Amino acid sequence: MYVTHLECPKCKAQFDPKKLTQLCEHCSAPLLVRYDLDKVKTKFTKEALASRPYNLWRYKELLPIENEENIVSLGEVITPIIALKKVGAKLGLSHLYLKDEGMNPGGTFKSRGAAVGISKAKELGVKRFAMPTNGNAGAAWAIYAAKADIEAYIVMPEDAPLITRNECAIAGAKLYLVDGLISDAGKIVGKTVKKYGLMDASTLKEPYRIEGKKTMGLELAEQFNWEVPDVILYPTGGGVGLIGIYKGLLELRELGLIGEQLPRLVAVQAEHCAPIVEAYKKRESESTFWEDAHTIAYGITVPKALGDFLVLGAIYDTNGCAIAVSDANILEYQALLAQNEGLFVCPEGAATLAATHQLLKEGWIKPDEKVVLLNTGSGLKYPDTVEITPPLLHVTDEITIDGKVNEHLLFV
Predict the structure, then answer these.
(1) What is the CATH number of the domain that holds 219?
(2) Cβ atoms of 131 and 138 closer than 8 Å
(3) 342 near 69, Cβ under 8 Å?
(4) Is the dihedral of CA 75, 76, 78, 80 positive or negative?
(5) Residue at 148 is within a domain
(6) Which of 102, 158, 237, 326 has the smallest count of CB within 10 Å of its CB?
(7) pTM for the whole structure
(8) Number of domains present in the structure of the chain
């Protein structure tokens, strides 16, 4: 294993990676995994990668699993980069791409964090964990926990998507619903962890979910032949994916696999839950709890992220930005992608396209820049977000195609 220690990004305290450590014991900040990158260089090369299986575990030197026998896998794949030529032309962008995380086990990017997080939990001898979730993270951790024979206790808001509840239940997780937000679920998990001694798998309260999420950054660099894009837009709730992408790119830069210039990172939030955006506007290092948070993009309904300072730091360090979009725009651009590119993305993913168009109109994104959207999950996980207009047409014998009826064929 190439891991040297766990490090607090605030006070720089170091901790033993062979022990289960949740947060910094001195300042309660999230911990980051650090590697001996000089040793990694000897094995982690472009030539070595070329001969490896095309899956998440190809990046093993930059992952924290010491013994490969502890890897818990459900067939993670390298997710595709899709050129959005038609939508790009409509918006006025020459090089617009989407990385589709809906191809992961469970249909979302949460599989990455769960695969590495559960594998490391198994390696550390964890038998039970608890976590709050808006839905998809709980579903992902539940299915990986089932394979690892680890007990999962999941707490989610009662208005979370039904499909994610079902995923937890069918996988055998102990599922609890709370009348409130993920922050309320987090309080319950905190009490449970303290009382029963479970591992706390809350966002950033264990250091290994980031390591799974950072593989999105590693993949992006490799898929673009080590020439990173100009801009990466990421739907941001807890922000682990954005933090992970940034961490992965920094490691690649130190290994000499990419150049000095990093992509400008954009945190995309919803208008009615935008704590990172408000902090960015004020150039603050941390966000303020967002009251009455709500949005159709349920996965980014996070009123206050534990790692907000890491998200904001990544944005500032890359000359990126944070931007909020409306629910109406999310639905509009979700339909635009489906009707022009055949891609049914989740609302969170659609938010990145809405943000791209807004930033293009403002001149922050230039027409010839290479722009990548992160679609964090399949639209199939959110069937209730789609409204069919005009109404369905019913037939009893045959379809008559003329100008009037043909307008409705898309919805038949």
Answers:
(1) 3.40.50.1100
(2) yes
(3) no
(4) positive
(5) no
(6) 158
(7) 0.93
(8) 1
